[in-house]
Design brief:
By secondary structure, this protein is α+β, with helices and mostly antiparallel strands. The chain has four helices and five strands; from the N terminus they run βααβββαβα.
């Protein structure tokens, strides 16, 4: 690895646009993603959609000029804490760079941004079978979300078709 740098993406910068598309597509191709490339329609809509979303925060990891990782985050709000929260929607590192500290560095940058913004917590979802990612999250201090009664929180979805 040359020199790993983590930057907040500027979606008006064509280099950052290309890096975001490349990293999200690499994640989509991965078995922990969808196992297939993004469709052309999603590729065309991704950058404009992220630009329109007012709470998007994206961090890119570069080894020299090569993008090697990404954290796509969105600001939310905790009604129980009356403060913002930062959700890590996607965290991905290309296979050749896994186990080399890239994911940890991305998470550190996300945490620093969350603190800067006064966030009360970071949140994320992880697949039950993604043990490698889970180990990273445990090491940097994430834990299962639980209520005051100690019960786990579930993450559910209902897809909406256009």
């Amino acid at each position: 690895m040359q020199k790993l740098t983590i930057v907040e993406a500027d979606l008006d910068d064509p280099k950052h646009q290309d890096a975001v598309l490349a990293m999200v597509n690499a994640y989509a191709r991965d078995p922990m993603g969808n196992g297939q490339d993004l469709s052309e329609s999603v590729r065309q809509a991704l950058i404009p959609g992220l630009r329109r979303h007012p709470t998007s925060l994206i961090f890119l990891a570069f080894d020299g000029q090569e993008p090697v990782g990404i954290a796509v985050c969105f600001l939310g709000f905790s009604t129980f804490a009356a403060r913002p929260l930062l959700n890590i929607h996607d965290l991905a590192v290309i296979p050749a760079y896994r186990g080399r500290g890239v994911g940890r560095r991305l998470l550190e940058r996300v945490e620093a941004k969350g603190r800067e913004l006064g966030c009360c917590k970071l949140t994320l979802e992880v697949r039950e079978d993604n043990h490698t990612a889970q180990q990273l999250y445990w090491r940097v201090g994430f834990k299962h979300a639980a209520s005051e009664a100690g019960t786990r929180t579930w993450f559910l979805e209902r897809r909406l078709e256009l």
